[in-house]
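wait is this the right file?? whatever heres the structure
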C-alpha cells in the first residue's frame, strides 16, 4: 500500500506544472477515487487538493526567486487562471505577494514532498484487539457527505456540533438505552465519492420512531484504543493504523462500515479513552 502511495506522490510531482488526473491516482493506488482521497487525508492530514496546491506554491516561490520568472508566467504554469488569483493564493501561503519574493530578507514557506514509509517505533506500542461481532442495529441520525475537496472534513465536525448543541445526543442515548455514542462511516458510494456519516448509539431497546435505524453487518473488527483529548489523539491513531498497522500485518480493510466509539466522559481530558473499530479480512 505504501509503495502505491509513493507512486501516487511521484505522479503528482511529475504533473505539478500540468494536470493531476484523479482517475490516474485511483489507478496507481489500485483503489477508487473515493478510497484514495480518504486514505490520503487520513494518513497525511491534508486533502489531495491541499497537497497539490501547497506543493505548486512552494515551487512557484522557488522559480520566482531563482529563475527571474515573470509572475504571470508562473501563475499560468501552476494552474491559476489570472495573476490576481495566483497572488491571492501566494500571499495566503507565504505571507507576501509574488512581487516581494526577491526583496532581501523575505521569508517564505516551503512545503516539502511527502514520502510514505513504515515507521518503526519500538518505544510506542500500538495496542489492538480482534473482535468478531454479530450484526447489530444503531439508532440516531445520518448525513450524506462527500470526499470531494475534503468536504467531509468540514461537514462532519459541523454535524457533531449540530447534534451536541440541540441535545440530539441525549435523545439518541435515551432512545438506544445506551450512553456510548458512535460516529459511523457507512453506505459508501465510491463512484460518486460519497458516504453516510451516522451519529448514533447501538440499539439496546425499542427505537424512537423520530430517529433513523441502521443495520451494521456482522464482521471481524480490529479495535484500537485512543487515549487523549479529541480530536488530536484519535487522528493520530487513524494515521498510525494506515501508515503502520495495515502495512505490517496480514489484514486489509473489510470494506464495510467503520466507526469511532465514544464512552461517557470529557473528550478534552488528557486521559479520555475512546475506540476505533475497522472491519478487516485476511489478505
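ok assuming it is, sequence goes like this
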Amino acid at each position: 500500500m505504501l509503495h502505491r502511495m509513493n507512486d501516487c506522490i511521484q505522479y503528482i510531482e511529475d504533473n505539478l506544472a500540468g494536470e493531476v488526473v484523479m482517475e490516474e491516482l485511483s489507478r496507481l493506488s489500485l483503489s477508487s477515487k473515493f478510497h484514495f482521497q480518504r486514505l490520503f487525508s487520513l494518513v497525511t492530514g491534508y486533502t489531495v487538493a491541499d497537497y497539490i496546491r501547497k506543493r505548486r506554491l512552494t515551487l512557484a516561490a522557488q522559480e520566482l526567486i531563482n529563475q527571474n520568472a515573470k509572475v504571470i508566467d508562473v501563475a499560468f504554469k501552476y494552474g491559476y487562471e489570472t495573476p490576481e488569483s495566483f497572488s491571492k493564493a501566494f500571499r495566503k501561503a507565504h505571507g507576501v505577494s509574488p512581487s516581494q519574493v526577491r526583496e532581501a530578507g523575505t521569508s517564505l514557506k516551503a512545503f516539502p514532498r511527502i514520502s510514505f514509509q513504515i515507521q518503526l517505533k519500538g518505544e510506542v506500542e500500538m495496542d489492538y484487539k480482534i473482535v468478531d461481532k454479530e450484526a447489530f442495529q444503531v439508532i440516531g441520525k445520518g448525513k450524506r457527505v462527500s470526499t470531494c475537496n475534503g468536504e467531509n472534513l468540514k461537514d462532519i465536525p459541523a454535524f457533531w456540533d449540530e447534534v451536541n448543541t440541540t441535545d440530539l445526543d441525549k435523545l439518541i442515548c435515551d432512545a438506544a438505552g445506551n450512553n456510548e455514542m458512535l460516529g459511523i462511516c457507512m453506505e459508501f458510494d465510491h463512484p460518486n465519492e460519497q458516504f453516510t456519516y451516522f451519529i448514533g448509539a447501538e440499539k439496546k431497546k425499542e427505537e424512537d420512531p423520530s430517529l433513523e435505524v441502521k443495520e451494521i453487518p456482522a464482521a471481524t473488527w480490529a479495535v484500537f484504543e485512543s487515549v487523549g483529548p479529541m480530536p488530536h489523539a484519535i487522528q493520530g491513531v487513524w494515521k498510525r493504523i494506515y501508515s503502520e498497522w495495515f502495512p505490517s500485518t496480514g489484514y486489509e480493510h473489510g470494506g464495510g462500515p467503520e466507526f469511532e466509539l465514544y464512552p461517557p466522559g470529557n473528550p478534552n481530558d488528557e486521559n479520555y479513552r475512546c475506540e476505533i473499530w475497522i472491519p478487516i479480512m485476511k489478505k
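Residues 2-100 form a domain with the Arc Repressor Mutant, subunit A fold (CATH 1.10.10.60). so i think its the right one actually
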